[in-house]
Amino acid sequence: MTWQKAVLQAASFETPTARTLTFDVPDWPGHLPGQHVDVRLTAEDGYTAQRSYSIASASGLSITVQRLDDGEVSPFLTDIYDIGQPVELRGPIGGWFVWRPTDPAPVQLIAGGSGIVPLMAMIRSRAEHGVRTPFRLLYSVRTPQDVIYADELRQRARDDRGLDVEYVYTRVRGSRIGVADVNTHAWPADFAPAVYVCGPTGFVETVADIMVALGHDARGIKTERFG
Q: What confidence tens digit (pLDDT) does each residue in 193-224 have?
């Protein structure tokens, strides 16, 4: 897989610390929702740094970057990187944590923080392809102000038939996502849903364990973790 040049075409902030970047990539081959790309930056002195970012879009190429205050790459992408500037990309990458619009099983998405990004690509792909596969999203985030894609999720929950969205605001209530949340808002095990869980490592492991404890087949639970 080779690196290719891309140019920043558009950018917008989803929250004060999360920015969506849309690229113009000549000959972009397309991707499946759930895949990611590698981004490589090169400084004037030749120093390079690269990071992997989940694809946020159903078509074209957009990523959403969450700024890490001690990060090497994310502060540049969220605060400095400007329209028309170049970057190197490699992808799309990944073939396991993906959803295909032809898959018939109901879908359970569970996101922690910026783990919403690849799951949002799945939600957008569902709408773009006009399928009515039942989707549920359970989104764990610190506060309502930290919700990435807040306006779009609100609109889609209202207008996209068959999509249900529920939130767990962990800092507001003072506790993390737990068995009661998953048992109440996720598809039951006897529905045999395709489950996608994305977020920080501890979050993903906790949720996957809860799903198994509630009777879900571990083979039907796909996870993507970071941090």
A: 999 999 999 999 999 999 999 999 999 999 99
Q: What is the pLDDT of residue 227?
A: 62
Pairing of strands 48-54, 36-42: antiparallel
User: For residue 168, what are its two tokens?
Assistant: 């767990």
Q: What is the DSSP string of 33-102?
A: TT-EEEEEEE-TTS-EEEEEEEB--SSS-EEEEE--TT-SSHHHHHHT--TT-EEEEEEEE-SSS---TT
Residue 75: asked if its preceding bond is cis (omega within 30°), the reply is no
Instruction: Label residue 219 exposed, middle or buried (CB < 10 Å: 0-12, 13-18, 19+).
Output: exposed
Q: How far apart are the first and last CA of the chain?
A: 25
User: For the whole model, what pTM was predicted?
Assistant: 0.96
pLDDT digits (tens, 9 = 90+) for 73-104: 999 999 999 999 999 999 999 999 999 999 99
User: Could you give the CA distance from residue 15 to residue 145 in angstroms, rounded to a whole number?
Assistant: 7
User: For 134, how many CA atoms within 13 A lie in the half-sphere containing its CB?
Assistant: 8
